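User: Second chain of the day. Same drill as before.
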Amino acid sequence: ASSKQGNILPNLHKLSLDIALSAPSRQLAQVFKLILCPNLSSVACRYIGQLPKEDEAMSQFIDTLRSSSEHLEALCWRIEEMSVWAISHLSAVLPSFPELRSVEFSVNDLAPALVQAVARVQKLERVQLAFLNDRKSNPILEQVSFPSLKEMTCMGLKSAVRPLLVANKVPVLEALSLQLYGWWEDEEVGLFEGLRDLALLPFLTTLRVETPMGSWDEMKPLLSLKGIKELNLDLTVSAGLEGLWPLSAVRLVAESFPCLEVLVLGREGSRLDDPTLKLPALDCLAQHCPRLRFLAVTLDARQLHAFNGSVIPHPSVQEVNLLWSEADTHEVEIAEVISQLWPNLRSGTTMWENSIEVWPAPRWARIWSKVESASMAESGTWSYFTSTRLRNFIDFD
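Assistant: Same format as last time:
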């Protein structure tokens, strides 16, 4: 009866779907016809299980989606592997959606042909491409361009991602996120050296980079992107002082981005992965980042009490996330130094309450309580301090 009536959810606008590839293709076809409707604007599908050679489940979904969802604006596609047939079929269909603006692919060894198909989407504004693993120079990737693209996320080998990061290929790009691996690649020209070209982009204001490096000097070409307002650097250095941001590196960042409003050094995740900052690094930010309003760093707050009364205040900062910062028993003094560092602070957070190691959480709760009391006593305004809140900018997803 339902099949005669057509779509069972005719007003559905957003759909997230897990497709079991082991299910009979006839049953899947019936389900797709019932739930894929003309009003859908966003579809996310994840394929579970081993992909059969005939790709029946995938072909049924692609064909039904093309015939029934002409107003589709966002498509997310996650699967471990795709056959040559599936790549060809999807590549042919993808540019036929007239309103498609956002495309996400998460496929092991994402085929260059799919990237080329994405580039043919007329109104494309946002793309996420994972995982680009082709070590050899690919003529297809060197030729594609994204003239209307505003947001780009690329995950993969440095050598595979580099051909896409050319200014004249992404002329109106506003936000770029890179999650890169391949530290073992022997590159004549480093990836960041190639990014100097992006300084020509007039609208690029948001940059996020996660990658291993041989040394801190490798990040210097990034410093040519003077227009960046939101910056997230999650860098793993194989040489030098592990687990510590050198003062010289922080100074370069602070001096190189005069428009910086949001700065994240690190990410949400294992606290062992996050390099920490010493207090003098915060002095650099206070001196050279007058517009900074949000800061997320892992700070070595132990012995911080020794600097009480001798810090450089950063009045523009209103929100901080101290991520995996460790503190000692000098809670009152640490709170006083935090209040001196950021006199206009309205929100303070850490990540400890989300960790298995919960012992630092009560300590930071007490510290933030003292900071909040000092803030209210000084300004008379209500502030928000907790150890669980984190901005989405830190995450890739």
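Confidence is low (pLDDT under 50) at residues 388-397.

User: Great, on to the next one.
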